[in-house]
Amino acid sequence: MTTFPLLTLLTFLPLVGALLILVTGQAASASSDRLVRRDRPERSHAHARALAMGFSLAALLLTLGLWHAFRSGSGAMQFQEQHAWIPSLNIQYRLGVDGLGLLMVLLSAIVVPIAIAASWRVKGRVPLYFSLVLLLQAGLFGTFTALNFFHWFLFWELSLIPAFFLIRLWGGAQRASAATQFFVYTMVGSVALLLAFLGLFLATGSFDFIDLAALAHNGQLLPAITQNLGWHGMAGDRVALILFFAALLGFAVKVPMMPFHTWLPAAYAEAPTGTTILLTGAMSKMGVYGFLRILLPIFSQQILWMRKPLLVLAVATIVFSPWAAFAQKDLKRIFAYSSVNHLGYCLLGIFAVAGSSGDSPMLLTQRAAALDGVILQMFNHGLTASVLFWFVALIEKRSNGLRGINDFGGLRKVAPVFCGLMGIALFSSLGLPGLNGFIGEFLILKGVFPLAPWATAISLFGLLVTAIVLLTVLQRVFSGPLNPRWSGFADLTLRETVVLAPAIALMFLLGLYPQVVLGVINGTALAVTAQLKF
Amino acid sequence: MTGTSYRELLLLALPQTVVVLAGLIALALDLSLFRNSTNRVRFSAGAAIACAGSLAAGCCILLSQTHGAIQTFQNGMLLSNPLTHLIQIALLLLAVLTILLSIDSTFTDHIGEYILLILLATAGMMFLVSTEDLLLIFVSLELLSLCLYVLTGFNKHSVHSAEAALKYFLFGGMSAAFLLFGFSYLYGLSGSTNLVRIAAATEGSVMDPLLMVAIVMTVTGFGFKVAAVPFHLWSPDAYEGAPAPAAAFIASASKVASFFIFAQVMVLGFAGTAGNAGWNVRAPGWAPLVAVVAALSLVLGNVAALAQKSVKRLLAYSAIAHAGYMLLAIVSHTQQSIAALLYYVLTYALTTIGAFGVVAVVEHQTGGDKLSDFAGLSRRAPLPSMCMLVFLLSLAGIPPLAGFFGKFYLFSAALAGTTASLSLLWLVILAVAMSAVSLYYYLQVLKRIYVEQPPADAAPIQISILSQIVLCLIAAIIILLGCAPNLLLRLIQNALNAIIA
Prior knowledge:
The structure holds two protein chains of two kinds. By secondary structure, chain A is mainly alpha-helical. Chain A has a domain at 306-534. Chain A has helices at residues 6-35, 39-69, 99-118, 126-145, 149-158, 160-170, 175-204, 209-218, 221-228, 236-254, 263-270, 273-298, 300-305, 307-326, 331-353, 361-399, 411-414, 416-430, 436-451, 453-478, 494-512, 515-531; strands at 78-86, 91-97. In chain A, strand 1 and strand 2 (91-97) form a beta hairpin. In chain A, helix 7 (175-204) packs antiparallel against helix 10 (236-254). The two termini of chain A are 33 Å apart. In chain B, strand 1 and strand 2 (78-80) form a beta hairpin. Chain B has one domain (6-500). In chain B, 58% of the residues are buried. Chain B is 74% helix and 1% strand. A two-stranded antiparallel sheet of chain B has the order 1-2. Classes of the chains: A mainly alpha, B mainly alpha. Chain A binds chain B through residues 26, 30, 33, 85-89, 150, 153-154, 157-158, 161, 165, 168-169, 187-188, 191, 194-195, 198, 201-202, 228-232, and chain B through 280, 336, 339, 382-383, 393, 398-400, 404, 408-409, 411-412, 415-416, 419-422, 425, 429, 432, 436, 439, 447, 450-451, 460, 483-486, 489-490, 493.
């Protein structure tokens, strides 16, 4: 085990970058005010972009180093750091990653450079924009590495503030209401989450995820709640259920799970596309991560009680969201709803795993497979959705902001490379075998089917409709007669192709050889499965 | 008791004496040596003397701490223990910050008097927090209040300032009368002015009508001081009319001292008559009374702040709301919640002083403190805007700022005090809900600063290097205390443990 605080370094790297951009950017703009020279702001913008890209790539490199040093196959926390922080509340500064955390850190490290590349030409207050993006990245890293609720919650909230300002200041025409809606929804969820953990703390005296999970596993959590939280003489299991609902609300809003998703289409559509990439690629994973890291181990008992309704909600999320996507005209809204659909599979996997009596080895394997699928799906969706929204950004750049599904047509003729690469991303999103999207969904459905056959069966309709929606996009935008207005639509430049190529290659790699990732996460999936107790 | 040891008295009151002397020196020099200098020079000289005096007083406190940890004089007439040291140093720091932030202001020519008044008020507060005797509490409270009345009306060119001062004075005078009336009953009931003896004499006799009158009167009197609903009416006008640095001082340092002594009187003086404010375990006593006041403050402060157009008034209503949170800690009055109260009030005071500092900058340049005067501030003054962002988000309780930990710790302490039945849950839930409401009006201010365009004729705001440094320093402390709350919390808890042991 390394003694060097790698994870802390990783978290603070973007933070330092954000500060640096802000300070140098402001110094540059102040001097430009004094000198009144036209080229100064431009130069400060280039400076800010370069710094942001540099810091995000440095973070990616560091993450790859972590990936390399990670002992795969183990479900234990690695690179742990532990220090006393606030002894009076028994709060410790505790960091560590297992396969799940590491994969999410890697995803964030990949998504942020994509987001920065997609917002290369952002207008107005450029240094502030990029420093907010890096601040958000610090929030993501912190959330995915923290093992203590207090510390985790700081970063969870920290990521909310830059996201709000990114939408509010650089968003589309309806940005004010979209940003407010986003903020209010997630804030309400966060407050509920905070109260739930306050309750757990009062019952057990601990904020530590691992300690709490161990208590739940040993069956000591419920007695502790009964003993210390008898509110109005309410039975302990009732109180535990209330705590569970409060925590569930926080994560369900973030993922989002229907019916808590209404903030999402507006936020995704109104946010500048670079920010949409961050929202869907990385931030939505915070919710699923919360389900896996926090709800499943600590509240497995309560999930089991509420399993039927929860499964219904997950299935509803999977089935209804592609229908909603069908009705949309805006590419961003279509992809927003399809994002909801893809994360619905993760929820399905998680809820299905929480159920089922019996401990036969066969069942354990199915559960682990489903969890493998969930974790893989999180990564796949993050990658694919980021690339899709990146393509939307490229389309917007060429069409001066138009992105309606009916605004285009026949682009294949003028922009074949563009069409081909975006087609790959679309097919990955709808789950074509050979591409990354397939593996995750396949593993989930395979693992879930024996555990919850009816839910799996109904979910397959969602798969079908998603395919129809995405193929419609492909058809309306790229085939058919060429819309004369876009006869000058530029194909991908060499630079754009080179930048996109690694992401597309990664899709193929994961589709053909998922073992790269599975090797890392399987240990975690097994460990989580072993810890479930019913 | 054999006579009074004046040497002991002088040693115990040395910090306060040093502060008063510094004020007098500042006044004397200002009236003689700097008589013909510019205001700027006079302010700088006065501030330097005040800082030196505060520093010296701080050193006295730290030195006495190394000598003997706990000293009392005349059975609690004057105390010296780690807790009073901590609070006194915090008060000195707040006074220094107030003076540093007022160097640029132009509302007055009476600079020596201004500094003397702030230092006298500081001395009053330092006495206030280091006594458990009703008489000294009352006298030092009056010293503090009289200085604050004058400071409120210090801007002779503004009719609002005079109006605010008169209003503050009349309300304050009334509250002093209530307080004194309550104290007189306490003396009558117990035959002593010492809080501990009063507690011993009145324990268990909650239903005694005389004691009830005393409790109600005391709560009323302190309610005025901390601006809790329904005794809050003076505060929006006083905050709005007073010069911004004076308002900052009223909202920060005097809040710290008032809350400290409020908690002290309640916890020590009415130790046996707290009753219970729990929803399902109500029992008569002062706790239910304070709980009602807290609930009213939370609701009215937050809701009324939504409608404000002036940032100073908005901060005044937010101060009322924050008083509600802090009263919640007094209601629960366990050792942990007192620690939470102290952490909260200290960080709150720092934040408020910073926020008023930014308001002072804006007011100085644009001549007003309306929300519209803040439009586009981020383009005109990026650094103060960034500091204001930190201050307002901290007041709203957003992590990772000090305000978040303050609320978090306060709520968990209030609940933990009564875990078995979670009886204060109703008040905590109200407080959490209201803090969500508060986010809205803080964001309104931030929206003006960051989203709206500045008026067409707006020039970049000039702000002195010193103010920038002070504002950034405060913002840095707030971030630091949010990320590493233990720095302050450890001091508070050690002090509390020391005096309880």
